[in-house]
Amino acid sequence: MFEGMTSSTLLEKHPRLEDVMCSLDSVGKMPRGVSAEIRQAVALARRFNETVARPYALELDREMHEDPAFIPWDLVKEINRWGFYTAWIPKIFGGKGWNLGSLIPVVEEFCSECAGIGNLMGVEYFGMSVLFAGWNTRITDKICRDVVEGERSGEPCLIAGLVTEPGAGTDAEETELLHKAQVRCLARKVDGGYVVNGTKVFISNGHVSTWHISTAFEDLSRPAESMMCFAVRRDAKGFNFGRMEKKMGQKGCPASEIIFEDCFVPDEDVIINGEQIRKLRHSPKETAQQVIDFVVTLTRPGVGAMGAGVARGAFQEALAFARETEVGGKPLINQEWAQCLLAEMYANAALARLTYMECNHVTGLYGMAWMLNWKPLYYYMKAMPPSVLDRVMPFANRLQATQQAFRKLIMDWQKDEDARRASGWASLSKFAATDLGIKNCHLAVEFMGEAGIRHDHRAEKFLRDSKLLQIYEGTNQLNRLNLFKCLVAPAAPEAQVFEE
Amino acid sequence: MRTTISEELKMLAGMARDFAAKELVDEREEHDRFPFAPLFEDVLGKAVEVGFFAVMLPEEAGGSAEPVTALCVVLDEVCQADASLGATIFTNALAQEVIGQAGGTDKVVMIACEDGSFRQGLIAFPSYNDPGEVDHCARAARARGGYELSGGVEYVVLGGLVKRALLPAKVEGTEGYSWFLVDLDADGIDASEPVLSLGMHACPAVDLSLSAVPGALVGEEGRGGEYFEAAVDRLSAAAAAMAAGVMKGSFAEALEYSRQREQGGRLIVDWSGLRVMLADMALKAKVADMLVEKAAFAADRGELGWQLASRAAALMVGEMATVATTDGIQALGGYGYMKDYGQEKRFRDAKQIQSLMGITHMRRLQFMQRVMDGEAAW
Ligand SMILES: Cc1cc2nc3c(=O)[nH]c(=O)nc-3n(C[C@H](O)[C@H](O)[C@H](O)COP(=O)(O)OP(=O)(O)OC[C@H]3O[C@@H](n4cnc5c(N)ncnc54)[C@H](O)[C@@H]3O)c2cc1C
């Protein structure tokens, strides 16, 4: 039946080769330097694990068991001192400009020791991606340089991302649901800015962050069409911390409730709003989805990497146990069933890693920061001394023209199918890798028996930590549906999602 | 089980349910804060009073001499609310059963009658290990007409709370291991702080190290493994009942929540994606219930092959519960991960229940060995 078809038509058939094998296209386009950067970054993360995370992870978890209100400031300062909070800020915004492709493997490294500490570091880049997604270069520049200054001064300046509301979790991740959502976070336009009222929940790093990048709605009856995004400092009037959640795991990373009470946000801290959105090519609802997708395309593979991390960490504890334990008078490591199980666990971690590495290729080509992987720009930025950029860019970023250029290039010119592919793969990695992650943790605890349930043997902590991965950045159910929407539905045009 | 058990057991179930509702539900989170908050000693005291620690004990020991089904009924109900109390009941029952298998009923009688408090009456026991597999045994030396125990025994459940423990030790010069009753107040015993664990925090354990501590031999030297395996045969059904209870509790809370929470403009229970997940939980709970019932009845009637039925139930229900309680959190989204609801605790508890009586893979291999040895499997 394929007779007469050209090769390119054949490859266009579902599943399209470009959808299922993005790395094939990406490898040739990737600057050579990226692989060396990943090696360096991972080595640094391993050094951090050995000197900071491994010795402290259990103690911190125990401390939080004892005092759920404890805030790990010293650890935040330590991560700050190691430079992880600015490493992946692009040079044009004052950061070190490490290639984004190295961020996610570093997240895996952190989480192979402690997913709580991993989130304490990694979720900074969730906050940052919400900030970036509106492509407001002026405010992005301002806040990123605050983070850089926080590193220099030793007083960390972190960024949290505030999306979820008490009544809208899954709904806040998808515009098809958002338009029926019970959102309450209202941004009312007033002279010179907005007055915001409402509550955000489960905000990772809330209590330790200085800048809070939040979504809100200009019209609560039409949330999908009226989403806006702003930045607010923790010391602003009307910005209040509510409770800090008592979580099962990832205890080292606070999850906070944040309450806006007549909180005034000046126009200059608005990242994107209805007025600006109306100037873009897409409709407001499409733009809202685009902004959400920009964020999750970066962060969901990050959670996938956390899945790979816990899968590997659990495997490592199980392996150590097998090496030091005799069962029935024989070393466990020499029992065939145990070898099969350990092989299975190894494979689970590897499969999880493959999903996020593939995503790394996808986002490198189609994500909001694709330009950073464009060879001429990559090498240009490498060669450019930071001192020169730091003199020029703060001014350039403040220009209306710069912002407009970025919005045109990244928002207006983004092809739908590129967006779809990036978002679909991000979801794939998110749910597949985290399912594998928790699976390994279950296996490790079971394998280790009595040792598995003891805090001092670490496996149980991995299990508690891993469960969260199936929940945040969209539950794994929502991510399955998003994969369907992005990668399956195009082959079944009659399909409707969220319409059953 | 509620539908098929006798009237008498229905009353027992009702009593256990009322007890759980009154004593366990409201304070679950606070109780689970141990060792960073006080232990629920008052609840343990009341559980002694209503006879939860003597369900299967012979009457002469002050027990109710009920069949294993009765213990399962109690554990199922209690664990729907809080498996910590369930694990305490189970651990004590397992220790009693080992002593009973060794023919040492008089020893249980002695303990149970001493006074009504849980400190005097309950027996600490390393209920997550099979000493025949992972060798956490002390050494026993013959001395002064009896035995003295030295060395370490890990993860002795209730060890920091009660007066006596039943501990495994190897008598010098003999094969296998033996069980000894040890007075935990004796000189030469060093108990660790409570071991922080995955689940069931209010049923804590300690690591013990012993140096020449007097121990009373239970049964015969070197036959500890035999007694333990026989006790595991019987109490596996009870472990399955615990897992089933936790699973039912998780399902009930997931269903209740899903009927109240809206996303995308409708109750989440009305999204078929979520409903299938709930259905899988309900199916597992139903199958678990059937397995526990079958295993417990078979054990009580001494049906051919009841031992393997009981073990199969523990392994399969134990595993199902770990999956179902994982989904039980998921149904509540972020809220399920928080201490405000019971789901995260049930997830931890179910996983810990799975490891009762030793590593599951070894129990599976033992099961297979017994099938190959010709024990009627079905
Ligand atoms: C510790 C923690 C940290 C977090 N950090 C942040 C953060 O930094 N910033 C932030 O904005 N948010 C954060 N979140 C929020 C997180 O993203 C949400 O919890 C998540 O999106 C799920 O929302 P929900 O908890 O309201 O669950 P719900 O949306 O209420 O979901 C409940 C259940 O219903 C299912 N469900 C819902 N809709 C559907 C549907 N249409 N079809 C099928 N099933 C459905 C879900 O899959 C889930 O099983 C965090 C959450 C936690 C727990």
Report on this model:
- The complex is a heterodimer of chains A (500) and B (378).
- Chain A has 500 residues and is an alpha+beta fold.
- Chain A has helices at residues 7-12, 17-20, 22-29, 33-66, 73-82, 103-113, 115-122, 124-133, 137-153, 175-178, 274-277, 284-324, 336-366, 375-383, 386-398, 400-412, 416-452, 459-467, 476-488; strands spanning 159-162, 186-190, 193-204, 211-217, 227-233, 239-244, 255-266, 270-272, 326-327, 330-331.
- Chain A folds into 2 domains: 17-156 and 286-491, Up-down Bundle (Butyryl-CoA Dehydrogenase, subunit A, domain 3), CATH 1.20.140.10; 159-273, Butyryl-CoA Dehydrogenase, subunit A, domain 2 (Beta Barrel), CATH 2.40.110.
- Chain A has a 4-stranded mixed β-sheet with strand order 1-4-5-8. A 4-stranded antiparallel β-sheet of chain A has the order 2-3-7-6, with no helix packed on it. Chain A has a two-stranded antiparallel sheet with strand order 9-10.
- In chain A, helix 6 (103-113) crosses helix 12 and helix 9 packs antiparallel against helix 15.
- Helices cover 51% and strands 15% of the residues of chain B.
- Chain B has 3 domains: 7-122, Acyl-CoA dehydrogenase/oxidase, N-terminal domain (Butyryl-Coa Dehydrogenase, subunit A, domain 1), CATH 1.10.540; 124-221, Butyryl-CoA Dehydrogenase, subunit A, domain 2 (Beta Barrel); 225-372, Butyryl-CoA Dehydrogenase, subunit A, domain 3.
- Chain B is built from 12 helices and 9 strands.
- At the A-B interface, helix 4, strand 9, helix 13, helix 17 and helix 18 of A face strand 8, helix 9, helix 10, helix 11 and helix 12 of B.
- The complex binds flavin-adenine dinucleotide (FAD).
- Flavin-adenine dinucleotide sits between chains A (123, 161-164, 169-170, 173, 202-204, 247, 255, 468, 471-475, 477-478, 498) and B (261, 263-264, 268, 271, 273-274, 330-331, 333-335, 337).
